[in-house]
Amino acid sequence: ALHSLLSVTLKSEIKKLIYTHVGIWLLLLAQMCIGHLKLLPHDQVAMPYQWEYPYLLSILPSLLGLLSFPRNNISYLVLSMISTGLFSVAPLIYGAMEMFPLAQQLYRHGKAYRFIFGFSAVSVMYLVVVVAAQVHGWQLYYSKKLLDSWFTSTQEKKKK
């Protein structure tokens, strides 16, 4: 009974993180559409940085996570965790490195070349990276705990 309670709690925490992630993902998608379809001038909404393109794949681990919940599917959850590393965490690390020289330029010389609604794009995108990194970090942490709880309850069922 304790495992199912833990499972329900962890699932609800992970769902909140997934919905937050979908929000971030939709904002980046909006930026890409606006940039590429020239819906707004580029001085209002900057073109995306390179790391944002592979990050679009980060929706897959979240979907796998949600798919694992109804039947406590261990393999989907494991796939979700592995692909979170590849499609979510890796592009964020790459993004932090890609934007670092631009951030340095901004803080040393006060020069920004890309803007998002009047804010320097590099500052806005670093904020996104920091928030997204926390979302994915907690997602992985709770997924690991959920996985452990599913393993334990599977083991107990086998003993009976």
UniProtKB/TrEMBL annotation:
The chain crosses the membrane at residues 17-39, 51-69, 76-95, 115-135. The keyword Endoplasmic reticulum applies. It is a multi-pass membrane protein. GO terms for cellular component: endoplasmic reticulum membrane. It is found in: Endoplasmic reticulum membrane. Keywords: Endoplasmic reticulum, Membrane, Transmembrane, Transmembrane helix. InterPro entries: Jagunal. One of its GO terms (biological process) is endoplasmic reticulum organization. Its main location: endoplasmic reticulum. It holds the Pfam family Jagunal. Belongs to the jagunal family. This is Protein jagunal homolog 1. The lineage of its organism: Eukaryota, Metazoa, Chordata, Craniata, Vertebrata. The gene is Jagn1.
